[in-house]
Amino acid sequence: MPAMTTFADYLKDLRTSKRIGVRELGRECGVTGMHISNMEKGKSLPSPELIVKLAQALEADVDEMSHRADHVAPEVVGVIQNQPKAVPNF
Description:
The protein is an all-alpha fold.
């Protein structure tokens, strides 16, 4: 299994694949372009609320983004990966 990319790399890859600038993404999410840039450099992590906005703006999976930002407990991730049917749909 390949090593999981950091949240910073994941965010930058998503943003660049959508051809969205840091300022544009910041405007869509209600934060500054500098804040987006700092997250992409690994200097800061988003709040759970910002993760939702980023996921919507980038058409990404909010759960995957939360996990990469360490907002999901590792044991929960293990259950989801090993027993996906054990997790109810919300």
